[in-house]
Structure formats: C-alpha cells, structure tokens
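Render this sequence as a predicted structure.
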Amino acid sequence: MNQLTTPLAERLRPRTLDDYVGQQNLLGTNKPLRRAIERNTIPSMILWGPPGVGKTTLALLIAEATRRPFHSLSAINSGVKDLREVLSRPSGLFSPILFIDEIHRYNKSQQDSLLGAVEKGQVTLIGATTENPSFEINSALLSRCQVYILEAFGEKELTELVSRALEKDDWLRSKKITVESYDALFRLSGGDGRKLLNLLELVVLAEGEKEEIVITDEGVTQAAQQNIARYDKSGEQHYDIISAFIKSIRGSDPNAALYWMARMIVAGEDPEFIARRMLILASEDIGNANPTAIIMANACMQAVKMIGYPESRIILSQVAVYLATSPKSNASYTAIDDAMALAQKTAHLPVPLHLRNAPTKLMKEIGYGKEYRYAHSYEGNFTLQNFLPDDLKGTKLFEPGQNAREEEIRRKLQQWWGEWYGY
C-alpha cells in the first residue's frame, strides 16, 4: 500500500479483536459483546458512538471472528432496492452480517424494510450511528436490536493509537519520529481516532523528506490550519461546528452562536438536527434557571419540522439567541447523573415499608404503606418524612444553581428540609 494514497487510519485498521483499541466496557474479558462474539451468538445490534471510535472496524472484526458473510451498505447512497438485493442472497449455517453505516439516515420505509429479515434471523444487522437511536431508529426496529454504546477515546487510548502507528506503519517506521507533546494532537482530534491518525500523517507529510521529525504542538496546529476542510454535513466538520455552536450558547455568546449556526445553514445542514441539539441544551445547560427555555426549544423543533428552509432559519436564530442570553444551570443534569451512579451501586436497597403500595389486605397487615403521611393533610402541603431507602437517608443529590430562579428553589428547600439534606 502506498502511504500517499491510503490514509494512515485505513492502513492501521485492526485485523483482530486483540488489536482493537478501546471499548473495554464491551470487549474486555468476559464483557457481554466479547462473550457473544466468542460464542458466535451475536444479536442484531446498533453501534452508537461519536465518529472515529471504530464502529465500522468493529463490525468487520465481528464478521471475521464469527466467519460469517459480510455485506456492507451506506445509508447515504443506498435504498430499499439495495437492501432487497442483499436480503435475497442465500445464507449458510449462520445468518450473514448486514452492516449499515449511518443507519439513522434511512427513512421510515427503508428501516421498515429490514424488520422481517431481522426478526426471522435472515440477517444479523449491525447498524452504525452517531445519533441517538431513540430519536433516529424506528421503535419497531430498535426493539429487535441490542444497542451498544461506544465511547469517545480518552487520553490513554489516543496515546496507544499514536504509539501503534509509529511502531507498526512501515512508512512512519522509516523515519525517526519523536513526540514532544500530545496536547495539540489530542485537542484537534477531539477523541476521534481516525482524525488523530490522519492528523499525525498530515504533520509528518508537512515535514517533507526529513528523516528525523519532532512532533510539537506548534507544528501540529500549523499543519492542521493549512488543511482545514470545508464544512461537510456528512463529515468531521459537521461535528466540530455543532460542538462550537453548542459551546457558544452554553457560554452565553449569541454572536458566536449565530455565526456557527450560519455556517451550518449555508452548508445545508438539516434544520431539525440544529433544533434537536438546542432542545437538549435547553434542559442540560439552562434547566430550571429558566424553565421557559425548554418550551421555546421544543416549539422551535416542531416549527422547523413544519416549515423547513429558508423560513426556519428565522426561528432557529430567535431561539439560539434566547438560549444564549438565558441564565444557565446544569443542576438537574448533574443531579440525574449522580442519582444514576448512586442507583447502580445501591439497587439492592429495599423501598421503605411506608412508601410501598398496599393493594391487598395482606400487604396492609404486614406494614405496607403504614405510617405514610399524606402531604396534603398537613399545613402547607408538607410534612417531614424519609422518602429514600433507610441506608441513604439524608443523601443530597440536587444542588440548586447560582441564579435567581434556583435561589428561590433553594429557599423553599431550606424551608422544607432544613438540616435534613443540608440545604
């Protein structure tokens, strides 16, 4: 292979599961997906994760490890006719793997055409998506698939990718390359392994015929700036610009938010994608600091579905400015994450008897619902009682943010719960 015609990321694509970097929560020893692959009992699945974390590579490795026929389609340039042609092919002892990249781009009828084949086991579907399957995959198809979440690479995985490249790629090994700093490589790749490797190759190419190369943050930044790609709504810039847009709103900068939104609109980005991201932000980054924000964002989502471009740009602009200039709070977002982490550790704790449902006489006799105090029977519709498992009594998960609306919530909590939760 010629290093100038085949990208580094492709040259280094893993050939076995042991060479696969990351996703140890799925592929580590005795982890669920690893066991399924080893037993050749893989279910139809959706691989959900950001770009450059190895979704396509994993699908190829699964096919190789299970020795199944492998058919690949891209949802960007295939349709029902292509699906039917693949599904009509004969299969052997085990169902063939049908890999569909960017499956979220299939419309409802295209996704529906997969249902029968998946349900009958005619094919084992592996769909790859960067979008939340709950929003983008039909519920009927989603119910027939296991969803596996692939995480963005951390510093450890990114370092391993660079080390492997320098050790295993023939062209890179022909040079004496040292890495002075990884900071710019990691920052500009944003957890995307493919982007990291291609950026590494770009930096080395920029050094020309030099045999000894030192990779510095300055060199990486300069090489990247000279090769900034035009916005491509199906490529890497898509994710970089939506990230800049969201961070600008979170940072309360309406000018920057409008600029990045304009970049997306001019490039023809799906207005529903922009609106959906603003709807998520309205809850994640504003929350109860301004409860109207999620109402505005939801109305925006509904409006752009009905209107489309060019008029929807006006609605998108209005809501982006509203969200950017709104008070911010991530208190509810952090609270549910903390609560879920606690729930995973304490799922064995029983519901206190006084909170249990008591639909039968026996349940009442053994204490279900006993001593529960009905809030509306007390002054101010409130009375102190424990609503958590006994072992977690007094555990505070929600901390109001520093804004006018949540300071009001804080005063109410202090009035109701005082020292109970430490408000």
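Summary. The chain has four domains: 22-149, 155-225, 236-324, 348-417. The first strand starts at residue 45 and ends at 48.
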